[in-house]
From TrEMBL:
It comes from the Bacteria. Residues 201-278 form the ACT domain. One of its GO terms (molecular function) is prephenate dehydratase activity. Pathway: Amino-acid biosynthesis; L-phenylalanine biosynthesis; phenylpyruvate from prephenate: step 1/1. It catalyses: prephenate + H(+) = 3-phenylpyruvate + CO2 + H2O. Residues 3-182 form the Prephenate dehydratase domain. InterPro entries: ACT-like_dom_sf, ACT_dom, Chor_mutase/pphenate_deHydtase, Preph_deHydtase, Preph_deHydtase_CS. This is Prephenate dehydratase. The gene is pheA. It is an enzyme of class 4 (lyase). Its EC number is 4.2.1.51. It holds the Pfam family PDT.
């Protein structure tokens, strides 16, 4: 039996994804994304599941930066789940929205519900937490007139009542979760149909090469390799220094990818494969 780590506590969307993807496994929560990734690196757990991108708020930068700058672990799978944000209150709350003094949740959840908060609870103070599960935990143990933004699992885990369902601003809200493990065969523990396959590359451009990004993209384009995402992040070595994360919608092969890598390295780029993996879309 594999030990699965996730961004906790109970009631987070990461826990929802883990429950949907892995059945009957030993599961352990971590307070932060770095703690979860470190646990995989130190082999305290076999598999780590962390959020990597939300359809509304974009990349979870902490996850990407930590994997690039601190701990290089292979991505062995991606799990995509729909996100439904609800306004959660204690069962004994019988007031109205205007009485809520504080709203607790993760920064991404707050941002996903910005318009609802602005239009309905504009005077409530915003309190950011490490996760939506932690926000629900805070509300459940407080005697103040406060609320949390989270999912139905959080409401169930902490005995809260859903005051208002689906308060996120856009209906097509999904989050991608990266499954990290040293053993690539651990992906076999996900018993779901594979939606597609993907390869993620880390590319660093030469600082003094005019038109380098155009030539990087051309290396994929003329080979008819479809890119689903390209994003720049700072190298943290000074202003103007960036690396690029590129998702290619196909598994790694021994023909196209080695030739792309050789072409880019000839331009002075550094190319690292962060993972080639299946993608699972789970309806939870």
């Amino acid at each position: 039996m594999k030990k699965i780590g996730y961004l906790g506590p109970k009631g987070t969307f990461t826990k929802l994804a883990v429950d949907a993807a892995f059945n009957g496994e030993d599961k352990q929560s971590f307070e932060t994304i770095p703690e979860c990734i470190d646990a995989v690196q130190e082999e305290e757990i076999d598999i780590g599941v962390v959020p990597v991108e939300n359809a509304i708020e974009g990349t979870v930068q902490l996850t990407v930066d930590y994997l690039v700058h601190q701990v290089r672990l292979p991505i062995i799978a991606e799990v995509v789940v729909p996100i439904q944000q609800h306004l959660l209150v204690r069962p004994d709350f019988n007031g109205n929205l205007t009485e809520i003094e504080e709203i607790h949740s993760h920064s991404h959840a707050i941002a996903q519900c910005h318009q609802y908060i602005h239009q309905n609870i504009p005077k409530a103070a915003i309190r950011f937490t490490s996760s939506t599960g932690r926000a629900a935990e805070i509300v459940s143990s407080s005697d103040q007139t406060i609320a949390a933004i989270g999912n139905k699992l959080a409401a169930s885990e902490y005995g809260l009542r859903i005051f208002k369902e689906n308060i996120h601003d856009y209906p097509n809200n999904h989050t991608r979760f990266a499954v990290l493990a040293k053993d690539k065969n651990a992906v076999k523990h996900i018993k779901h149909p594979v939606e597609t396959e993907k390869t993620t590359l880390l590319i660093t451009l030469p600082s003094d090469y005019a038109g380098a990004l155009h030539q990087v993209l051309s290396a994929f384009a003329w080979r008819k390799m479809n890119l689903s995402k390209i994003e720049s992040r700072p190298m943290k070595t000074g202003l103007g220094n960036y690396f690029f994360i590129i998702d290619v919608n196909q598994p790694y092969d021994e023909v196209l990818f080695p030739s792309v890598k050789a072409e880019l390295e000839a331009l002075g780029c550094q190319v690292t494969i962060l993972g080639t993996y299946p993608v699972f879309n789970l309806n939870v």
